[in-house]
Amino acid sequence: MIVRKAEQKIAELLKPVAGEDARTEAVFLLRASGFHSPYQELSETDAKLLEPLIERRLSGEPLQYVLGEWEFYGLPFYVDETVLIPRPDTERLAETALSLLSEDKRDVLDLCCGSGCIGITLAALGGAHVTAADISSDALSMTERNARRNGVSVRTVQSDLFDSVEGTFDLIVSNPPYLSQAEIDARDESLRFEPALALYGGKDGMDFYRRIAKDYRHFLRPGGALLLEIGYTQREAVEALFANSECIEDYGGRPRVIVVRNDD
Ligand code: GLN
């Protein structure tokens, strides 16, 4: 069977979970297995190797985990169920942080780093010197793998927010867990595969912002900035925690990034 034909067959199988994305997902799965050209021949054995991947996807596991990698800001990142899947919404935060880096302002702390996608993007594309912190040792191992994959080095620290972080930084970037208990309870199938540790922000989803607001000044240099991803309903609540903040929208026009400048 040629790849084009296999694409059609896999897309047919994936329809119940992938809907109109089924064809694209079939292409991703084939490419991840080394089949790029539409007219390449696929043997019976090759087709068998794809079966477990298709099964996983059919069980509701997100495509990104099945592939084991995903792109963020045009860079490749390994992902598995110990870290959140990098999202386009978070690219807005990375883009804003990149615009704030300069020759003499490039010490960055990525708090709750997960896969490492934000910090590593800033190191790879902005020459940032990055410290990446997370409470999860699995996440820190993933960040280290991803740093190697992108040819940069980042310092990793196992830390519950700022608890074990040392030093001061020009930029602090964070996509902390921010879903409320109600949102966690109502979360759809795909989010159930992602680590609750990385999603659950306490009863009202605000726990991490409150703790960050209490402590960030000790770690942010004068002239520096704190950049936080937020849920699109959290703008007012997060703004109320910080004086002098500015809100930036994501590409869908929803409030997504809070920038707090340290102007003193
Ligand atoms: N953006 C994610 C979602 O809504 C949540 C990410 C987070 O809690 N940091 O699914």
Structure description:
It is a single chain. This protein has helices at 3-18, 22-32, 44-58, 63-67, 88-100, 117-126, 137-149, 181-185, 196-199, 207-215, 235-239; strands spanning 69-72, 75-78, 107-111, 129-134, 155-158, 169-174, 220-229, 245-249, 255-261. By secondary structure, it is α/β, with parallel strands linked by helices. Strands 5-4-3-6-7-9-8 form a seven-stranded mixed β-sheet. A two-stranded antiparallel ribbon has the order 1-2. A hairpin with a 2-residue loop joins strand 1 (69-72) and strand 2 (75-78). It starts with a helix and ends with a strand. Glutamine binds at residues 87, 89, 175-179, 191, 199.
Descriptive keywords:
single chain; 264 residues; alpha/beta; Rossmann fold; 2 domains; seven-stranded mixed β-sheet; two-stranded antiparallel ribbon; 11 helices; 9 strands; binds glutamine
Write a brief structural summary.
The chain has helices spanning 3-18, 22-32, 44-58, 63-67, 88-100, 117-126, 137-149, 181-185, 196-199, 207-215, 235-239; strands at 69-72, 75-78, 107-111, 129-134, 155-158, 169-174, 220-229, 245-249, 255-261. It is α/β, with parallel strands linked by helices and 264 residues long. The model has no long low-confidence stretch (mean pLDDT 96).
Question: What string, H for helix and E for strand, traces the elements in order?
Answer: HHHHEEHEHEHEEHHHEHEE
> Radius of gyration, rounded?
20 Å
At the fourth CATH level, what is the homologous superfamily of the largest domain?
A: Vaccinia Virus protein VP39
Structural class determined from secondary elements:
alpha/beta
- Give the CATH architecture of the largest domain: 3-Layer(aba) Sandwich
Proportion in helices = 40-55%
Outline the biggest β-sheet. 7 strands, mixed
So what's the overall shape?
A: elongated
**What count of domains describes the coordinates?**
2
Q: Unreliable runs, pLDDT <50, ≥5 residues?
A: none
**Strand-residue proportion:** 15-25%
CATH class of the largest domain, please? Alpha Beta
